[in-house]
Each structure stands twice: as structure tokens, then as C-alpha cells.
Amino acid sequence: METTMGKIKREELLTLEAYYKARPEMRQQAIAERKKRTVMLGEHLNMIFESKFLMQYQIQEMLRVEKIFEDEGIQDEMDTYNALVPDGTNFKVTMKLEYVNEADRKIALAKLIGVEDRVFVEVEGQPRVYAIANEDLDRTTAEKTSSVHFLRFELTDDMRKSLKGGAQMKVGCDHKEYPFHVESLPAETLASLIQDLN
């Protein structure tokens, strides 16, 4: 299945029957791609750098599970997931705050208000880029932050050129309750992310 640039188009989606046949292979590919494109900041902050292929897989899964085959339903799923497909100038990330224990999670989410605005990427030799968070709806209240956020990191031409030219990229969070960063990404992760940029 092609993972070219641009949004997912209707003609790129498989029918429910075709997806049923393709699913085992697509599922393996999605698991491998998600693993490659996941950056963990410490124990609890999980960042999945979304891709066109991962979003296409999500749409196919939703259509399969919900047995959606009407045009309107398919369009709704496409609209939802296309918002998370990178545009060629940015990275789109699903950020999850993961705590196994319910009580720990409650405490952490109360302490981490605003964490989604303190997550950054930093291309070697360039200024930090902080996330633009939750453009669809606000996920934070006065009492707590959400355990899931959707982030967009907008990169300048110079940053994109640097990455394509072999620069490293740091990913981090400088929220006072969760200071953590990864100095450099594994080569296969970085190579996969660079494919999102035009």
C-alpha cells in the first residue's frame, strides 16, 4: 500500500471485502510503522508521529468495525483521520499520558495541566518548535489535562532542509512537572519522519 504524500483520497480506500483480505498484512505493517514512529519521553509520555499510512489503516479499521459502507459515513471517517495526516511542512502527533494505576493517573493529570503546550521538537542548529495542540477541541479543564492530545509541529523551510541534509532532531517536554527530552532519534525513526516532509 502506497504511503505517498497528501491526504487520503476515497479511491485509495479498500472496499470492506478487499480490506478483509489485505488486513493481516496491513495490520503487521501498521504495528511495525507505529513502533518505528513512537517516541517515549520517560515512562509516561508517549508520542506517536502519525503518517498517511497509519491514518489510512485507522480509517479501514473503523469502516470494518462499524461496517460503514455509505458515502457519508466514509467521508466522516476520512475527515476525522485526514486531520492527522502530515501536510508536508509539519509533523502530526498523537500524544498519550499513560499511567497504569488509576490513582496515579488522576494525580498526574492534575499536575500536568498545560503539558501539551510544552512539548517540542528541535532540529539541530535551529530554534525549538512547540506544539500547536488540540486544534479540533480543547482537552484541558481547570482541574486536569486530558490523557490524549493531538499536536502539530510546524517546521520552517530551513528546518526541513536541515533534516533532509542529515541533521538530528531532539524531542522533549519542558513542563516543570515533566522535564524530559530525547537528545537524538533512532536512525529509522528519523528516516520515517523525514518522508512526511516535502
Automatic annotation (TrEMBL):
It comes from the Bacteria. This is DUF3501 domain-containing protein.
